[in-house]
Design goal:
By secondary structure, the protein is of the alpha/beta class. 29% of the residues lie in helices and 25% in strands.
């Protein structure tokens, strides 16, 4: 953890280079010292079927969900959420400055009992 999961409307496909955005997200959360590098991962899911507002073709959307493991303070979660949203908005500025796009973000803390994972990458960073 953490996991950055982006859903984006297909009409943004040619407008966003996700790798620099992902690098900025990773660099930031690792810099906090509160998240293990071996657990950080990002992905973007293109939405071919979507409708924004009244359905105009030029309207777009991007939703980011940041999932983190249980146990961080409310203060840290708020700081991380605010900084990640700023990074996201900075990357999206060329789009939002010239077209209509709904951007949303949510930080989700996963339940410690109901979350399962197996990760053999962690030992590489110890």
């Amino acid at each position: 953890m953490p996991h950055f999961i982006i859903e984006y409307s297909a009409n943004l496909e040619e407008k966003i280079d996700f790798q620099p955005m992902f690098k900025a997200f990773h660099d930031y959360v690792i810099s906090t010292g509160q998240f293990p590098i071996g657990g950080v991962r990002s992905r973007a899911i293109r939405l071919d079927h979507f409708r924004v507002a009244d359905g105009r073709e030029e309207f777009s959307l991007l939703n980011l969900n940041l999932k983190i493991g249980h146990g961080r303070s409310q203060e840290l979660k708020q700081e991380v959420a605010e900084n990640v949203f700023k990074i996201l908005c900075d990357f999206m500025a060329p789009i939002t400055d010239t077209s209509y796009c709904q951007i949303s973000f949510e930080l989700t803390e996963l339940d410690p009992v109901l979350k399962f994972n197996k990760n053999n990458i962690h030992p590489l960073f110890k």
